[in-house]
Amino acid sequence: MSKKQQVEKVQKCNAVVSAFQATVKERAIVKQIEEVEEAEAKSSASPDEKNTEEAEKEEADSTAGPSTSQQATASARDECKVNQEAWSRLRDGKGVEPEDMDKTHQLTPPAYVRPKREADDDQPIEIELENKEQPPSDEMCDVCEVWTADDLYPCRICTRVFHDGCLRELGYLRAEALQEMRDTAHTVTGWSCYYCDNVNLLLTEEEMYSLMETFNQCKIIPESCLVSDELLQYRHFASKQLFDKDLTDEQEEEVLSQFTALDPEKKGHIEWSDFLYFESLAVLRKLRTENSLVRLLTAKERDTARSVFKGLVLDKDGVITRAESRQAQQSWFHKLNKEPQSCNVSISHVGPICESSPASSGSERSKTDESRPVTWADFLRESAIYIVAARPNSSAMHIRLPL
């Protein structure tokens, strides 16, 4: 029996149990209503037995509003109606539709819990090249936990699936982002859910605190867009704080190149999310080891890396060259290249490129180094940061591509 059939069987069983419980409850409520109405009928049949004070009190209560028993009766009837509607939906196998949900109780944005580094986080992890994982997508919406077959949109990074209506009600995606999801989620390009799209969520509490301290020192206002002058000012201030010197003309040009890469649509400003993702990846690149970055990869990402590596292996040794490895690392961003990128983004943390940074030394790489053999394990370690950097749906380039 497949997982889908098991889910349907459980849903039907739950539906029968719920219907039985609702029927029992309704009978009890109906009996209670009949007893209340009978008591009211008896009391109204002998009004002469009541004294004047009680009559005045009842009149005052009726003027003020419905009695407690009447309110209980109305509430019970409403609850019966809700139970009947719920049973009807479950009986049809559709469950609760996103449009019919009680938004105040059921569509609550999730509370994010930042990850914690494990003791063995920096230790190598063995990932077999031939052992393709092929994880199936979930069968129920991650928000409302309801299965509605073709109406679900999968994430290309994790196994979560979503209703577009649920995402719309959560307010995480604007109209154009929702349309992009509908257009790409079932294609080869794919779509990243709001968990995977936000690479800032990969940072631990300590790493995020360090990043926020830098923003505070550099007078960066969260949730605000940055123009080129503000980015230059930010880099100048960071250079003063970290290196106690101003940016050179060459470094200023590099900052403007970063700005261009983060503003692919040429709006004249950088969106806050793109700036935050760029800085978050810089923190990961600076503070995490390659082994730690490999542990961040999902099963789907590892499978994609396997396919790319196997496509490059031409000899019996099962290795590729470093040049081929660097070329393959650019393939993660093919989905983003709506227009040719004319410049790259620095991978250094806040501040300019220094002489010891990987970006500045890239042009001096020797031909001997380019022909160095790269195994599957080496390829995965070196590619992990680029695979993670390709998660966002944005067309901005959040990391410098290998030369």
Name the features.
single chain, 403 residues, mainly alpha, two-stranded antiparallel ribbon, 17 helices, zinc-finger
Describe it:
GO terms for molecular function: transcription corepressor activity; zinc ion binding. Keywords: Metal-binding, Zinc, Zinc-finger. Pfam families: zf-RING_15. This is PHD finger protein 24. Helix 1 runs antiparallel to helix 3 and helix 13 crosses helix 17. 53% of the residues lie in helices and 2% in strands. It contains 17 helices and 4 strands. About 9% of the residues have low confidence. The longest helix is centred in the N-terminal third of the chain and has 43 residues. The chain has 403 residues and is mostly helical.
Note the topology.
Elements: H1 3-45, H2 52-64, H3 68-91, H4 103-106, E1 152-154, E2 161-163, H5 164-170, H6 175-184, H7 194-197, H8 205-217, H9 228-243, H10 249-262, H11 272-287, H12 290-294, H13 299-312, E3 320-321, H14 322-329, H15 358-361, H16 367-370, E4 373-374, H17 376-389
Antiparallel strand pairs: 1-2, 3-4
Helix pairs in contact: 1-3, 9-10, 13-17
Short synopsis of the structure:
The protein is mainly α and 403 residues long. It contains 17 helices and 4 strands. A hairpin with a 6-residue loop joins strand 1 and strand 2 (161-163).
In total, the number of strands is 4
The shape, in one word, is extended
Number of helices: 17
Would you list the SSEs in sequence order as H and E? HHHHEEHHHHHHHHHEHHHEH
Strand content: under 5%
Pfam families: zf-RING_15 (PF16744)
Biased composition (Polar residues): 64-74
Organism: Labrus bergylta
GO cellular component, one term: nucleus
